[in-house]
Specification:
The structure holds two protein chains of two kinds. Chain A is of the alpha/beta class. Chain A has 13 helices and 17 strands. Chain B is mainly alpha-helical. The chains are: A alpha/beta, B mainly alpha.
């Protein structure tokens, strides 16, 4: 924990400790007071917080809750051709499209009571990733950026936030700046592209190029002291540290044995999950992996079945593999999406389902979360939340809580507006063991 | 290098000539009118400075102007030859001539195409379907090449109907790419063409009181009732093959071709003009299942009957957007074009319209909307006008805009290039003027199971016309069986069909081809340079990003840039050094090619030291360092 804090941003760390002291000791702490009190406060805060890493699996397009984690077997008109199957957790049924997931449900906490205010993809994905409504005047940092900002990096050279197959819009550092945006991975099996000195360029020439570029840049930055220009300068430094890191191999999934690779299965998403596991093992804080194609307005059941085939084996493998390596206890694995889909099946769209932000499902596993449970309920047809409704912000506050990060700490944007990791959200604490 | 002067001059005359094909001369073709309009814009800006007691920014130098104009208008840096020609000409009119050259060049429509693809979310393929958006893509490209007036463009999209393969009606792609989600499509229409945000009202009343859910449904009545032409005749056959796809794989693939790539790409239903309120309608002013007639939410109201279906709702909707929303339609596109040329919109975000009187500069906003209207929505002439202003030539202002919501009119704001601008500039350096390369052509071949069939005998245009005209289930079955037999037998004799004549060879470019981004597959794959630097995934409207990330920097240092340019001895930038007498001249040419300016004395000193230390290898190091520099990545 101490080590974690040492990596955090200096000013943020101080704020964090003050805040932690306020929240958990009920004292007002002045910055000039000694650090012993502050670290005591942090130790206290850390007690409920077991997670150090997050693997955030985002189902882009709006995953049908009804055909995945919140089936309604008694309602034929809602289910269509889908069926529900029993799982390893007593009394928990999930969709028949997820047979392998059913085998690991004892490790999962299925949340069936999410509610979002945003019913369009762009806005829905934005609020899930940032806790705020999309605005024209400010760019909010993504969850992974907040985690880096509040918790700091765990590894000095590897990026704190890596995004596999995602959109830059939703993995941006926002007003925290480019330093906090995700390092992007396009194809997991290629790892972090271009992280080695090009063939045929000697170390001497490589260094000469960088030093020439640096001279030019210093000159340019002096003429244009602009934050965007500056961001590239910082990124060059970061990139070079990364290239020289002995842990660069974290990005190379070819280092995995064939048995492990077979466990995860093929496809971009599966490889992304495997890469995510490697990365957290090497000290990356937050990895997002996206699986797209859930926007099943047209022919929902074929669409969902196909998506589940991509998801099911990889997800189950990820939980099993993390557990085997003793990393499930400090890695929170999140399955999230921007909204659910309507109970109504549209025959004129070849049995399609439309967007449904009113009720949908997400899943948490590992990182101190109790397994084999469901939290919250929808009504008989999965239309509205009937019990324990949680907002998008509550969900994000819960992620912060799992990491022991202060969900109520206010940070100011450069335009002097106050923001929090989960806006006004409050964590659901009862799901932690 | 003086020989290049006529090149610019002649090209500047091309613009007026191009448009004169039709009858009366258009205002957009009259360079005098454009000059006068540019002057009026500058006067507005001058008035603004006086009122705010601000000093007028200086004009930028030639080199900055050159680079800025190239990147803004045609989306790439000039070649070393183009740069040298412009910088060495001593002619007072050279800036205006350069603008004319650029506006008339093919690069202009390439650059506009990227913009239109981002706006319209143009993706080549469709998930879960064999349908392709290729014909629609080509339709958009052609509209940009021919400078289709913006009002005609919007009308052709919103009121489109017919066969998705026919080059005339391929604009139906505007709707068919959003199959199954007509309401999202409608929200996007309002957002991109009128700057009205209605996404929230799809599900609930806008908490800020602007739009109610009922308003949204009344508007949706206009576009309601879209369907695939004659699809019902194919449906039974499609179901049969779908259920039996394992045993009859080839038949199934042909059925899929018909279903997805022919029926699935057609559009009928001109708009019923009425719609049912959804089952979860929650307000007192209507009941679920109640039928609403069409009503437009603002502007001159257009109403449609709630008693009987009409078939021209989308035409009426298009007409309302274009002619009955007051200044709004013209102002939105004028502001978008201002943003393209000047870097910042008069108001931002550009898809959230505010009335002229609420903008920072009401008189200018109104004037621009009027100009757009007076130019008959000729968006090229409009941009040409902006390019002729002194305002465009203002020196760079290093500070961010003092306004969060738009242009503070105080000099050009420094901004990172778009991903497409970076790509197009890099390929200019690696393989010379990309606008001299042939453009991609339509691929209308018939594909069954990924293989082209009946090549030279029949193409998708002909096949789709035949199929869509079939008027009963029996006719579909008969045609299908006949076609299937042809495919199975490998077709008749080559050259027997009427289509064998005049079929151009298909030219398409793979993702790594060194051609304009507008010629490459859309969207760029996720591991592609373009995607890394923030090109839109074209899932959402205007989804491009200029956010820096560590991957971009790695790519510049170790990746694509090194392979294709720095370490590539055949790169154009090295060829342009041939015949240079001295190291100093070579350094100067490298600077002109990459940064489009001569080096300063200090820089010349650094670079000469590099050559002294490393010999020939030093030139590569210089090229690498200039491309990695922020100056290359940013527009001043």
């Amino acid at each position: 924990m101490k080590d974690l804090l040492n990596k955090a941003d200096e000013p943020t760390r101080r704020q964090f400790m003050q805040n932690a002291a306020r929240a958990y000791l009920g004292v007002h702490l002045f910055p000039m007071l000694g650090s012993s009190i502050a670290s005591a406060a942090v130790e206290g805060a850390a007690k409920g917080a077991k997670a150090k890493h997050v693997i955030y699996l985002f189902m882009a397009g709006g995953m049908s809750h009804l055909d995945t984690f919140d089936p309604k077997p008694k309602k034929k008109d809602v289910m269509g051709p889908a069926v529900a199957i029993p799982t390893k957790a007593d009394g928990v049924e999930i969709s028949g499209y997820l047979p392998k997931t059913a085998e690991v449900t004892d490790k999962m906490c299925i949340i069936n009571s999410l509610n979002s205010t945003q019913g369009a993809h762009e806005q829905g994905s934005y609020i899930m990733h940032t806790s705020y409504t999309q605005r024209g005047t400010i760019k909010h940092p993504a969850l992974g950026s907040w985690v880096m900002k509040l918790g700091g990096r765990l590894h000095p050279e590897l990026p704190g936030f890596v995004a596999v197959n995602t959109s830059p819009e939703y993995t941006s550092g926002g007003f925290f700046g480019a330093k906090y945006s995700a390092a992007p991975i396009g194809r997991p099996e290629q790892g972090l592209q271009d992280s080695h000195r090009p063939d045929g360029v000697s170390p001497e020439d490589f260094t000469r190029r960088l030093s020439l570029a640096d001279k030019l840049n210093t000159q340019f930055h002096n003429r244009y002291p602009n934050t965007d220009v500056k961001a590239y300068e910082e990124l060059y430094r970061e990139a070079i540290a990364l290239m020289n890191s002995k842990d660069l191999k974290a990005f190379d999934i070819s280092g995995e044995d064939s048995q492990t690779r077979a466990l995860y299965g093929g496809g971009n998403f599966a490889q992304g999950c495997l890469l995510a596991r490697r990365l957290v093992e090497h000290g990356v804080r937050f990895v997002e992996v996206q699986l797209g194609g859930w926007d099943t307005h047209y022919d929902n059941f074929t669409g969902v079945e196909g998506r589940c085939r991509e998801f099911d084996q990889a997800y189950a493998a990820l939980l099993i593999d993390l557990e085997k390596r003793g990393k499930l206890q400090d890695t929170l694995v999140v399955v999230a999406t921007e909204f659910g889909r309507t109970p109504e099946i549209k025959a004129q769209h070849n049995d399609g389902r439309d967007h449904h932000p009113g009720a949908f499902s997400c899943v948490l596993a590992g990182g101190g979360v109790k397994g084999g449970m469901k939290y919250g309920e929808t009504d008989a047809s999965g239309n509205k939340v009937r019990k324990d409704m949680i907002s998008v912000q509550d969900f994000n506050a819960t992620i912060a809580y799992a990491l022991g990060l202060p969900h109520d700490l206010i940070l100011m944007s450069p335009t002097k507006r106050p923001f929090k990791i989960a806006d006004k959200g409050a964590p659901v604490t009862s799901i932690f063991g | 290098m003086k020989f290049l002067i006529p090149f610019f001059v002649v090209a500047s005359l091309v613009v007026p000539v191009l448009g004169q094909a039709k009858t009366a001369p258009k205002p957009g073709d009259d360079i005098e009118f454009l000059r006068k309009s540019a002057l009026e814009i500058d006067r507005q800006i001058a008035t603004f400075y006086r009122a705010k007691k601000l000093s007028v920014p200086e004009l930028t130098d030639d080199a900055t102007f050159l680079r800025r104009a190239f990147l803004v208008v045609i989306g790439r840096i000039p070649t070393a030859e183009e740069a040298l020609a412009f910088i060495e000409i001593e002619d007072e009119a050279k800036r205006e001539e350069l603008v004319g050259y650029l506006m008339g060049s093919r690069g202009y429509s390439s650059h506009m195409t990227n913009w239109a693809f981002d706006l319209l979310r143009l993706r080549d393929g469709r998930q879960g379907s064999q349908a392709t958006n290729e014909p629609y893509r080509n339709w958009i490209r052609k509209a940009m090449d021919e400078n289709m007036p913006w009002d005609d463009f919007v009308t052709s999209l919103v009121a489109s109907s017919g066969n998705g393969w026919d080059p005339e009606t391929a604009s139906v792609g505007y709707y068919t790419i959003d199959r199954g989600m007509p309401l999202d499509n409608l929200s996007n229409t309002m957002r991109i063409f009128l700057g009205t945000r209605m996404e929230c009202a799809q599900c609930h009343d806008d908490p800020f009181g602007k739009t109610e859910r009922k308003d949204f449904y009344e508007l949706a009545a206009f576009t309601n009732g879209q369907y695939q032409q004659n699809e019902q005749h194919m449906r039974p056959l499609w179901r049969e093959y779908q259920d039996d796809q394992r045993n009859r794989a080839e038949e199934y693939r042909v059925a899929q071709l018909f279903w997805d790539r022919i029926y699935g790409m057609s559009l009928r239903g001109g708009g019923k003009g009425r719609i049912e309120l959804p089952s979860d309608y929650q307000y007192r002013d209507g009941k679920p299942g109640e039928i609403l007639g069409g009503r437009t939410p603002f502007g001159k109201t257009v109403r449609l009957s709630d008693r009987k279906d009409s078939d021209d709702g989308r035409e009426k909707f298009a007409d309302w957007i274009v002619t009955r929303t007051g200044e709004q339609f013209a102002a939105v596109i004028a502001n978008r074009m201002w943003q393209r040329i000047m870097g910042k919109g008069l108001y931002e975000p550009v898809d959230d319209y505010i009335e002229a009187k609420q903008t920072v500069h009401p008189a200018l906003m109104s004037q621009l909307a009027k100009l757009m209207h007076d130019l008959d929505y000729d968006i090229r002439a409009f941009q040409h006008t902006l390019m002729l202003t002194r305002t465009f030539q203002f020196a760079t202002n290093p500070n961010a805009s003092t306004l969060e919501v738009g242009d503070d009119f105080h000099g050009r704001k420094i901004a990172r290039l778009s991903s497409e601008q970076i790509w197009d500039s890099l390929i200019t350096l690696s393989s010379g003027d990309p606008d001299k390369k042939p453009v991609r052509t339509a691929d209308n071949r018939i594909f069954v199971g990924g293989r082209p069939v009946l090549v030279g005998q029949m193409d998708m245009i002909q096949l789709s016309e035949d199929v869509l005209a079939l008027d009963s289930e029996a006719e579909v079955r008969k045609y299908f069986n006949g076609f299937l037999a042809m495919v199975k037998s490998g077709g008749g004799k080559k050259g027997a069909g009427s289509m064998s004549m005049g079929m151009a060879p298909v030219r398409q470019y793979g993702k790594d081809s060194p051609v304009r981004a507008s010629e490459l597959p859309s969207p760029a794959p996720r591991e592609h340079f373009l995607y890394l630097f923030g090109a839109s995934d074209r899932e959402v409207v205007d989804g491009a990003s200029k956010e820096p990330n560590v991957g971009q920097v790695l790519s510049m240092m170790n990746g694509y840039v090194q392979r294709q340019l720095v370490e590539n001895s055949g790169a154009h930038v090295y060829k342009s050094l041939e015949g240079a007498g001295s190291d100093g001249e070579k350094i100067r040419r490298i600077y002109l090619a990459i940064l489009n300016r001569p080096p300063s004395d200090k820089e010349m000193g650094w670079m000469k030291e590099e050559i002294a230390a490393r010999g020939e290898q030093g030139f590569r190091n210089i090229v690498a360092s200039l491309v990695m520099s922020s100056e290359f990545l940013f527009l001043q």
